[in-house]
Amino acid sequence: TQLLEQSPQFLSIQEGENLTVYCNSSSVFSSLQWYRQEPGEGPVLLVTVVTGGEVKKLKRLTFQFGDARKDSSLHITAAQPGDTGLYLCAGVRWGNSGGSNYKLTFGKGTLLTVNP
Amino acid sequence: EPEVTQTPSHQVTQMGQEVILRCVPISNHLYFYWYRQILGQKVEFLVSFYNNEISEKSEIFDDQFSVERPDGSNFTLKIRSTKLEDSAMYFCASRTGTSDHEQYFGPGTRLTVT
């Protein structure tokens, strides 16, 4: 059983389309972070959401943290080929922030391909 | 923009050999982490480090693994006797302070054990 389930696992769309990817859990998280990872490289932080119900926007990307702090979504408007990559969600489980540890639990990711 | 750096980018070693992976965290960060990612699998937590001691380690981080901050800038992961299953990407990450959730990752070291 995966602590953080990401869906879909693979997504292939045409340039200009909108898309949403999801990160779901049965556990509560203190925070969720979205990263983007290119092949053979490290995850690059896109955003951190901390408050239940929080919405953050980063240009064409909109991130939402669920009210119950168990899920998050990433919506991309008018996708471009440059958006192609692996999108990872990672969270600090509620209770794991004690002692300032903040270890991250990762999902498996959504591999997005945007075709020109 | 400050970033986490890691060396080497790729390390090939024979089974049973010792390897040291090096990281330079962002300079004003106080919390340091090692994660690994086996090919095709998710990123997994190995160990967290603060105030010159391990604050938490996963079940993966057994007696073959150790971490050290030998000076004010480097953070190292040592594997004493490598196994084939240690082959993976190893990522270092760092974080500023007590209430800051954001972790910044380095580019990784690809470890190949033959």
Descriptive account of the structure:
The complex is a heterodimer of chains A (116) and B (114). Chain A is globular and about 45 Å long. In chain A, the strands form two sheets. In chain A, strands 2, 4, 5, 9, 10 and 11 form a six-stranded mixed sheet that branches. In chain A, strand 4 (29-37) and strand 5 (44-49) form a beta hairpin. Chain A has a single domain, classed as Immunoglobulins (Immunoglobulin-like, Sandwich), CATH 2.60.40. With 116 residues, chain A is mostly beta strands. Helices cover 0% and strands 53% of the residues of chain A. By secondary structure, chain B is mainly beta. Chain B has one domain (5-113): Immunoglobulin-like (Sandwich). Chain B has strands at residues 5-7, 10-13, 19-24, 31-37, 44-50, 53-57, 65-68, 75-79, 88-95, 104-105, 109-113. In chain B, the strands form two sheets. In chain B, strands 2, 4, 5, 6, 9, 10 and 11 form a seven-stranded mixed sheet that branches. A four-stranded antiparallel sheet of chain B has the order 1-3-8-7, with no helix packed on it. In chain B, a hairpin with a 2-residue loop joins strand 5 (44-50) and strand 6 (53-57). Classes of the chains: A mainly beta (116), B mainly beta (114). Chains A and B meet through strand 4, strand 5, strand 9 and strand 10 of A and strand 4, strand 5, strand 9 and strand 10 of B.
How many discrete domains of chain A?
A: 1
Count of helix runs of chain B? 0
CATH architecture of chain B: Sandwich
CATH domain class name of chain B: Mainly Beta
Q: What is the general shape of chain A? A: globular
Class inferred from helices and paired strands of chain A: mainly beta
Count of helical regions of chain A: 0
Give the helix level of chain A as a range of percent: under 10%
**Assembly annotation:** heterodimer
The first-to-last residue Cα distance of chain A is 36 Å
Ends apart, CA distance between termini of chain B: 37 Å
- How many strands, which pairing sense, and closed or not: the largest β-sheet of chain A? 6 strands, mixed
Q: Using the coordinates shown, work out and report the CATH topology of chain A.
A: Immunoglobulin-like
CATH homologous superfamily name of chain A? Answer: Immunoglobulins
Number of separate strands of chain A: 11
Radius of gyration of chain B: 13 Å
Reading the helices and strands of chain B in chain order gives: EEEEEEEEEEE
